[in-house]
């Protein structure tokens, strides 16, 4: 597919609330500012974009594409990057699967604004990625519950065991957990976050908020409230199931989505590479910003100002 200033990209919706795809857009090209603006517009609208036949073959090309949307984060605050590529995180089945609903790196002060995933090695079956709209979840809340959620703050941390039963854990789970938690982070985020570009409100919770609590509530109360709110995020109406194929890239808005990688491909290898784009500090509906409690993430990601590639 060729593009020009006169070309309007045509994304095909994958669901009414989240997800759209396009085939044959060559992301390895030096895309014009107009094309990038259209992709950003589509991301704001659909929240998750699937690029099939994307023609991105290398980490360098993925990094170059992702950097068109803003400065990049390092690969991860605690986990090692791909050798020689400080911005690229391997998402590899050999290290276990992220089969819990989460938003990327919410335990730091300014989580990534968006994530890109590129297919490297895929199983013959299974291995999809589920992505959920937290904006759809917020809209679904009864007015009384929505008003309550508007007032809440949750503590997010990486000191989290993903709640995987011991008999289902990956063989290297304990070693991976030690690496993941070698630097401890805790951050207080609003349960309802306002998207800085669209003004939409979304439930900003997910796996890293489950370990601790909601500010002002007991542990038991916090778990019950988070479980209730999380059930709205994962309603089928709010979820798109992305099937992977070779030469594919997925771009999703980390500010207003959660995702989940089901472990449904037996012992087959599955490998994606992730590059994330630096984000802003989350803001509650009253304008109050998130606050770091433990851990300095400044070496992982700069803070992006809205309007400057945010």
Automatic annotation (TrEMBL):
<protein>
    <submittedName>
        <fullName>TauD/TfdA family dioxygenase</fullName>
    </submittedName>
</protein>
<dbReference type="InterPro" id="IPR003819">
    <property type="entry name" value="TauD/TfdA-like"/>
</dbReference>
<dbReference type="Pfam" id="PF02668">
    <property type="entry name" value="TauD"/>
</dbReference>
<keyword id="KW-0408">Iron</keyword>
<keyword id="KW-0560">Oxidoreductase</keyword>
<keyword id="KW-0479">Metal-binding</keyword>
<dbReference type="InterPro" id="IPR051323">
    <property type="entry name" value="AtsK-like"/>
</dbReference>
<dbReference type="InterPro" id="IPR042098">
    <property type="entry name" value="TauD-like_sf"/>
</dbReference>
<keyword id="KW-0223">Dioxygenase</keyword>
<comment type="similarity">
    <text>Belongs to the TfdA dioxygenase family.</text>
</comment>
<feature type="domain" description="TauD/TfdA-like">
    <location>
        <begin position="11"/>
        <end position="276"/>
    </location>
</feature>
<dbReference type="GO" id="GO:0051213">
    <property type="term" value="F:dioxygenase activity"/>
</dbReference>
């Amino acid at each position: 597919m060729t593009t020009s200033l006169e070309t309007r990209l045509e994304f095909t919706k994958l669901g009414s609330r989240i997800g759209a795809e396009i085939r044959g857009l060559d992301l390895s090209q030096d895309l014009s500012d107009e094309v990038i603006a259209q992709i950003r517009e589509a991301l704001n609208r659909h929240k998750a974009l699937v690029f099939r036949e994307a023609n991105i073959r290398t980490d360098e090309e993925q990094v170059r594409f992702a950097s068109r949307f803003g400065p990049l984060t390092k690969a991860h605050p605690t986990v090692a990057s791909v050798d020689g590529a400080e911005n690229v995180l391997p998402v590899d089945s050999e290290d276990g699967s992220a089969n819990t609903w989460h938003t990327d790196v919410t335990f730091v002060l300014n989580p990534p604004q968006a994530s890109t995933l590129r297919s490297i090695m895929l199983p013959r079956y299974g291995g999809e990625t589920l992505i959920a709209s937290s904006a759809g979840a917020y809209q679904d809340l009864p007015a009384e519950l929505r008003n309550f959620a508007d007032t809440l703050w949750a503590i997010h941390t990486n000191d989290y065991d993903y709640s995987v039963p011991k008999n289902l854990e990956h063989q290297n789970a304990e070693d991976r957990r030690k690496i993941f938690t070698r630097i401890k982070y805790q951050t207080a985020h609003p349960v309802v976050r306002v998207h800085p570009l669209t003004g939409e409100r979304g439930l900003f919770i997910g796996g890293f908020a489950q370990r601790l609590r909601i500010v002002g509530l007991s542990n038991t109360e916090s778990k019950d409230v988070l479980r209730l709110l999380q059930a709205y995020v994962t309603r089928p109406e709010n979820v798109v199931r992305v099937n992977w194929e070779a030469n594919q890239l997925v771009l999703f808005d980390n500010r207003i989505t959660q995702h989940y990688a089901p472990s449904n491909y037996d012992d087959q290898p599955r490998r994606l590479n992730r590059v994330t784009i630096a984000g802003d500090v989350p803001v509650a509906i009253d304008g109050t910003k998130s606050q770091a409690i433990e851990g300095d993430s400044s070496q992982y990601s700069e803070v992006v100002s809205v309007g400057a590639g945010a």
